[in-house]
User: Which sequence fits this backbone?
């Protein structure tokens, strides 16, 4: 086990290095650096002053070495656009992204599995086809469009939900559960569309496979109720592949969060990376990329560990 | 149980589809156009009070207003609370001019009037500008405001070349600022600059010496720039949450009329479509709309006014003068003749614009001459002019001279409605025989290529300038190559007029100079002048007391705004 972990750690470090090199050179060599990300009528002297202040007159390789040198000590530098430490900016945004993704996972997994089961049990029925149809639509509709439509419906037309933000009022002293959830509802719904259809289809196919196995026939033969057969005996085994797909889907959630957060003014990591990229805030781009890479690595590791717990046949040796 | 869930699910899905269908029709697909780069000053405009407003609900009488309430204004990114900070873009400007005060501010006719300064005069040789300051101004932390603050702001921040302060190029001719006594400052000039009072009203607010003195790098004083700014404006900082909102509260010791509103909230909303949705749902109060595709939708919404405001801006096409094909005046004139500008204004701009024959916008009423003869839409005349310059259409209908076809790379940044405009322009130019390849690119990439490297043939964009007709920065030959003379146009006669205008402080004499300049610009087309856009100001109708100015300028009068039930 510890050997497995050590092995994975080694792989992860190599992966982080590769990602950092690629990102650093891509963003630094892209046209339109910080001196271009100024007002259009900025004078040449103003642009030159920025280049000097930010140390951009050094060659890219030298700057990468400097960045790496301080990054390994946990210092990710200072954001170009705000002069605040990069780590501080990221840390202040993380809780919001975690909140959004956690609720999305909760929502998508519970509904995804439910619909997956319905779809499998009632295979070939109208419901099955409806669920399949809507899954395909959910996968195909761009999130930004659907998000705007939801805003137009729930905020503009009906006036039920706030169209953006996290609802600072409902979080502070006069906390109200309903107020808080009303801000979460639309972002969670939109972000769910990036993973919910996959969970539905995965649950469905894995369920179909399981219910045709011999032990289910045995359970049925004992005279157990159908509900008991499905939810106790079949579900347990059908969920194993679903767990692994959830781990794989988390990175997709993080990239989906970029669009969702932009539409709903959600102050998380996703909206931060947009600001960073548009403003050519190199240290911030690097910081966020490294952070997201680490999250993905950790998620994959966790999935592997959990997997071996659920399914004893899988051993991480 | 299963049934209930099933029904709930079906209803939700139906709602989705219904929402999709019903809104899709009146949305005109503007949802995809959210490219507004945060670093561009798109929502930042400067305007004027010509009598074009649809409703005249404004009431400059402050006394009429009921105190209390909060207005909400959208910004597209996290702000920096320091007007001189190189990262203080449009989203910061709309906050900083409420938190801070400048020596002057744009008057209701855009002619600068006093703010921190009561009055001013220039010496006979115009090399000294003396400003007499108010003696009743207190910083938000209670410290008195003095001439030392002004001298510090300019000498240590603006004129310090290493800092690259925002807008410092306006003050290139300032040698030093001297605090004569507590309430008098003198700007010592290297050469006369008639537009000084206008420049001092434009994102050049004064910051407190007692906070910044002794700081090595004013840009990294985060306790001020990002957290708790101290200004002299009608509202002071209450709470800032990065990525979410900035909340300002009324400052009771403001040197002008104390504000009527309790609070001003700025919401960080990077997606401009969200601005439209939020003002329709009543969560926002006022902003200037960039993407005019949603104008109609907003006009049809109850409780929302769409107002048109003049601003000192002009749209242009720049033809790189390094390219000898574009040095022919006939070619430049022909291109203007070939473009049906009124049609572009009526369609893409929804009527929010006036055809431009030169660079001085109607917002500058004193100087603007509407009677300068323009180059009207006339493709036949365009073809004639091109023939005079030696360009004839070949059998494929493409212009050709000495075996070379007229092929142009047309490079633009993606922003607001620049792309649909450029596509129309491309079609009009193709119609008279030009071979135009339109290339769109991300905004910063365009700045790099067109503005910094000048590695382009043709581009389309706009300038917005302080409320003064001094176009020296955009047209003088000394600004070709590296300055803001993007086409790199050079003309001695124009240089002489620009120099005279920038130095002359007698208004009557200036008007004469700029009349002549307008006529010269209209003939020469150093930029191809397209139109003067009007700002589409979107406002909830319960918000009153906003003067008839562009949104950015009306912010200087935010103390007079009030909410009416």
Assistant:
């Amino acid at each position: 086990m510890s050997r497995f972990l050590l092995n994975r750690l080694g792989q992860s470090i190599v992966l982080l290095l590769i990602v950092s090199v690629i990102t650093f050179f891509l963003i630094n060599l892209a046209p339109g650096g910080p001196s271009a990300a100024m007002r259009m009528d900025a004078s040449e002297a103003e642009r030159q002053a920025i280049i000097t202040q930010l140390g951009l007159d050094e060659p890219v390789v030298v700057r990468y070495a400097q960045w790496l040198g301080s990054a390994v000590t946990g210092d990710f530098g200072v954001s170009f656009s705000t002069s605040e430490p990069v780590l501080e900016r990221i840390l202040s945004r993380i809780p919001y992204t975690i909140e959004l993704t956690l609720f999305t996972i909760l929502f998508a997994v519970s509904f995804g599995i439910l619909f997956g089961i319905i779809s499998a049990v009632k295979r070939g029925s109208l419901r099955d086809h409806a669920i399949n149809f809507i899954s395909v639509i959910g996968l195909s509709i761009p999130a930004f469009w659907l998000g705007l439509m939801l805003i137009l419906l729930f905020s503009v037309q009906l006036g039920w939900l706030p169209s953006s933000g996290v609802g600072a009022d409902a979080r502070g002293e006069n906390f109200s559960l309903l107020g808080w959830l009303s801000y979460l509802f639309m972002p969670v719904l939109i972000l769910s569309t990036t993973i919910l259809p996959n969970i539905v289809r995965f649950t469905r196919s894995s369920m179909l496979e399981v219910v045709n196995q011999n032990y289910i026939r045995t359970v049925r033969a004992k005279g157990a109720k159908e509900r008991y057969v499905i939810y106790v005996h079949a579900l347990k085994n059908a969920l194993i592949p679903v767990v692994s797909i959830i781990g794989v889907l988390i990175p997709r959630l993080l990239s989906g969060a970029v669009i969702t957060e932009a539409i709903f003014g959600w102050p998380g990591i996703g909206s931060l990376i947009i600001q960073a990229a548009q403003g050519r805030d190199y240290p911030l781009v690097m910081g966020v990329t490294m952070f997201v890479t680490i999250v993905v690595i950790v998620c994959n590791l966790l999935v592997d560990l959990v997997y071996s717990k659920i399914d004893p046949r899988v051993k991480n040796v | 149980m299963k049934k209930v869930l099933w029904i709930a699910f079906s209803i939700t899905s139906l709602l989705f589809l219904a929402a999709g269908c019903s809104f899709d029709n009146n949305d005109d697909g503007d949802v995809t156009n959210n490219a507004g780069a945060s670093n561009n000053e798109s929502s930042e405009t400067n305007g004027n009070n010509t009598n074009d407003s649809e409703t005249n609900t404004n009431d400059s009488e402050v006394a009429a207003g009921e105190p209390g309430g909060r207005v909400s204004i959208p910004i597209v990114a996290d702000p920096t609370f320091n007007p001189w900070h190189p990262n203080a873009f449009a989203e910061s400007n709309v906050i900083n001019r409420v938190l801070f005060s400048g020596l002057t501010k744009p008057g209701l006719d855009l002619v600068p009037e006093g703010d921190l300064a009561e009055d001013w005069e220039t010496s006979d040789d115009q090399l000294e500008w003396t400003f007499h300051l108010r003696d009743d101004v207190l910083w938000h932390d209670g410290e008195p405001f003095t001439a030392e603050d002004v001298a510090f702001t300019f000498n240590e921040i603006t004129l310090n070349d290493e800092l690259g302060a925002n807008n410092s190029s306006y003050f290139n001719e300032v040698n030093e600022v001297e605090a004569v006594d507590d309430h008098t400052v003198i700007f010592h000039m290297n050469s006369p600059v008639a537009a000084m009072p206008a420049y001092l009203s434009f994102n050049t607010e004064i910051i407190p010496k007692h906070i910044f003195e002794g700081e090595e790098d004013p840009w990294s004083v985060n306790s001020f720039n990002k957290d708790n700014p101290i200004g002299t404006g009608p509202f002071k900082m209450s709470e800032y949450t990065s990525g979410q909102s900035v909340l300002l509260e009324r400052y009771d010791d403001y040197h002008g009329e104390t504000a009527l509103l309790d609070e001003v909230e700025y919401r960080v909303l990077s997606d401009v479509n969200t601005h439209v949705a939020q003002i329709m749902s009543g969560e926002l109060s006022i902003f200037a709309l960039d993407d005019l595709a949603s104008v109609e939708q907003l006009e049809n919404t109850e409780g929302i006014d769409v107002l048109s405001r003049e601003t000192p801006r002009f749209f242009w096409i720049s033809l790189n003068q390094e390219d000898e094909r574009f040095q022919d005046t006939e070619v430049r004139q022909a291109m203007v003749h070939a473009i049906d500008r009124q049609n572009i204004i009526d369609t893409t701009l929804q009527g929010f614009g006036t055809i431009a024959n030169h660079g001085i916008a109607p917002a500058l009423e004193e100087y603007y001459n509407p009677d300068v003869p323009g180059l009207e839409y006339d493709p036949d005349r365009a073809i004639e002019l091109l023939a005079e310059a030696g360009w004839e259409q070949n059998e494929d209908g493409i212009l050709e001279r000495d075996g070379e076809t007229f092929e142009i790379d047309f490079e633009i940044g993606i922003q607001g409605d620049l792309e649909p405009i450029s596509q129309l322009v491309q079609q009009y130019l193709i119609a008279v025989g030009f071979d135009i390849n339109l290339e769109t690119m991300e905004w910063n990439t365009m700045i790099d290529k067109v503005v910094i490297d000048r590695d382009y043939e043709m581009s389309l964009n706009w300038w917005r300038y302080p409320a003064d007709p001094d176009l020296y920065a955009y047209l003088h030959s000394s600004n070709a190559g590296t300055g803001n003379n993007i086409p790199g146009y050079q003309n001695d006669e124009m240089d002489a007029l620009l120099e005279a205008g920038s130095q002359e402080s007698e208004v009557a004499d200036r008007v004469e100079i700029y009349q002549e300049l307008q006529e010269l610009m209209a003939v020469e087309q150093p930029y191809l002048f397209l139109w003067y856009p009007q700002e589409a100001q979107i406002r909830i109708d319960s918000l009153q007391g906003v003067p008839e100015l562009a949104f950015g300028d009306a912010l200087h009068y935010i103390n007079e705004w009030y909410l009416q039930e």
